[in-house]
# Entry
Amino acid sequence: MYIMFPIGWMYYFGTNLDNRFSVPDFWPKAGQTHRIPFEREEVGQELERLRTRRLALRDARLKREAEAEGRGGSGDA
# Structure
């Protein structure tokens, strides 16, 4: 059993498993991923970026809700 299983495995799948079962360019390159800020200034800049993004999305949501109420609302009584 201990000898025949690996031999059967290599006979069925072959020995070049890296070439047969690998997906080229599966993992992103270093420049394509998010870089975690470690310095105090970088953390502050990231927090400011997230804050402005959140406020912009909030303003857009409030504008959509105001337009929906102006057109007659959602039908709530």
Q: What stands out?
A: Residues 40-70 form the longest helix (31 residues). The CA atoms of residues 40 and 46 lie 10 Å apart. The two ends are 74 Å apart (CA to CA).
